[in-house]
């Protein structure tokens, strides 16, 4: 398989984000909601990396730059930043789910919405 369509990564990112939207909207389990948010972050990261791709591009890490186009480094830096932020946010959300589970005894999002105090 030598040929891959140029828009395949964009379609894969759109599919990941679409599945994540479905999970976030229609699932009531808090763990599944967090998994949907993680999938959405992965779709956004894939989209950012696909934006910086150039056919035949070289990595921008060389001292002696070979002739030809370079892959854009800014989307790669944004993706690394996004990964770090999403890991921190996911850890915070999982901590909150653990606290909700200990308080209510359930992972249902409807029960957590009815909590008071």
Give the SSE map.
Blueprint: H1 8-26, H2 30-51, H3 73-104, H4 109-113
Helix pairs in contact: 1-2, 2-3
Overview of the structural elements:
The chain is mainly alpha-helical. The protein has a single domain, classed as Orthogonal Bundle (Helix Hairpins), CATH 1.10.287. The chain is 67% helix and 0% strand. The chain has 4 helices and no strands. It has helices at 8-26, 30-51, 73-104, 109-113. The longest helix has 32 residues, at 73-104. The mean pLDDT is 87.
Relative helix content: 55-70%
Low-pLDDT runs: none
Oligomer: single chain
Strand content: under 5%
Shape: elongated
Instruction: Return Rg in Å.
Output: 19 Å
Please give a handful of descriptors for the protein shown.
117 residues, mainly alpha, Helix Hairpins, 4 helices
Briefly, what is this?
This protein is mainly α and 117 residues long.
């Amino acid at each position: 398989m030598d040929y891959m369509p140029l828009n395949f990564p964009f379609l894969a990112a759109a599919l990941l984000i679409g599945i994540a939207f479905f999970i976030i909207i229609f699932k009531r389990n808090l763990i599944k909601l967090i998994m949907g948010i993680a999938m959405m972050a992965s779709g956004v990261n894939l989209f950012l990396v696909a934006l910086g791709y150039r056919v035949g591009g070289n990595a921008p890490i060389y001292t002696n730059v070979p002739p030809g186009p370079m892959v854009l480094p800014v989307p790669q830096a944004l993706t690394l930043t996004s990964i770090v932020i999403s890991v921190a946010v996911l850890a915070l959300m999982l901590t909150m789910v653990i606290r909700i589970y200990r308080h209510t005894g359930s992972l249902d999002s409807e029960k957590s919405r009815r909590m008071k105090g």
